[in-house]
Amino acid sequence: MDVLEILTNLDNVFPYFQPIFSADGHQVIGYEVLGRYKSAKGIVSLGSFFLDENIPEEYRLEVDDTVLRKALEKMLILDEQLLIFINRDADLLMYDNGESFLNLLLKYQTKGIKLDRIVLESSDCIYKGNVEHLDHLLNYYRTYGIKIAIDNKGNEKYQLDRIGQLSPNILKVDLNELRSTASAHVLHDILYSLSLLARKIGATLLFKNIEMVYQLQFAWRNGGRYYQGCYLHPPSEDFVDQGILKEKLKVECHRFISYEKRKLQAVFDLTQEMNEQIQQCLQNKNRKLTNYDEILHIMASIFDDMAFRLYICDEDGFQKSANIIKLHGDEMWQLKPEYFRKNWSWRPYFLENIMKMSKDKKGILSDLYSDIETGEMIRTFSYPLNANDYLFVDIPYRYLYEKEDLL
What we know:
It is a single chain. The protein has helices at about 5, 45-50, 55-75, 90-95, 100-110, 130-140, 155-165, 180-200, 215-220, 245-285, 290-300, 350-360, 395-405, and strands at about 15-20, 30-40, 40-45, 85, 120, 145-150, 170-175, 205-210, 225, 310-315, 325, 335, 365, 370, 375-385, 390-395. The chain is α/β, with parallel strands linked by helices. It folds into two domains: about 5-230, TIM Barrel (Alpha-Beta Barrel); about 260-405, PAS domain (Beta-Lactamase). It has an eight-stranded mixed β-barrel with strand order 1-2-4-5-6-7-8-9, surrounded by four helices. Strand 6, helix 7 and strand 7 (about 170-175) form a beta-alpha-beta unit. Helix 7 packs parallel to helix 8 (about 180-200). The radius of gyration is 27 Å and the shape is elongated. The protein starts with a helix and ends with a helix.
């Protein structure tokens, strides 16, 4: 991209707008402003121009301000409730201590654009300056009602630290990585951390780069309130009708709901089936079972085609039995005494699930999670054998895959 050509032809610099849709209203709630340039070869993105550190900051800032000025001028006609998402590189933002950016916004505030409609996304993953100064500036912007967004790209730990420090209004999640089952599982783990933090600080999740329907379903399923991507609507020079996808999103949402209900029903049915099998087994015994190895062998025979590992723990998570294991391809169950007395109370939801079983007097089926030993995605069924002891039945991925709705 010819830098001098762009700088001497700022009339050819202009904004594109990508609509952002909401999960609750199924309509446009705002637009992200994107820079474009009309060259002899056609319209090109200015993204690489703004990220090119070989271009002096004052030149990039001039072009960035040109895009924003033209965008705000055009957005004066929009509904006063629509949000305006603005990307600004941290280095460019801090070049003049954020004065040009704020002054430009204040100018258009007098024309009718309220600053509480502005959402600033500032990329600071590679910011070379003093982060505290940047934070001070962003918090200063907040006093004007400007909202702050953070993209979760880059080093995850760093991003979680930054999210905690800034408590942004919006967390952006990039779905470009959602290309395979493996990456989906990794993204689930990242989203778990993000969703917990977002809930704690009151931030909204925005999923971007939605290019296929399964990505939209993933965003909906994982607590996304805002959606953005070419599957919904590509960036364009013009605005769209606020309700352009209202019917489409309503239909998609209904399909997602039906799918989730079917999965929940499958979980309920399996939970009920396993509860009944264990209850019937225990009731049919003429004597009280106290030998844990005997109990495990009996339960392993019941769930021979369904489970690959069983064990018994007390209410504090200390294992009171060996593990009994049958890996895929094996014909016989094997006892693993080395697991006796191991403690599992540190695992997420362990004590919470123990309390639920203690109160309800029935077993529960876990969410899908990655097993720490095999690395495969599994579910665990837990059952209260008595007031103190609990049976755990690990169900392998191959069984869940066969049932489909259990994944």
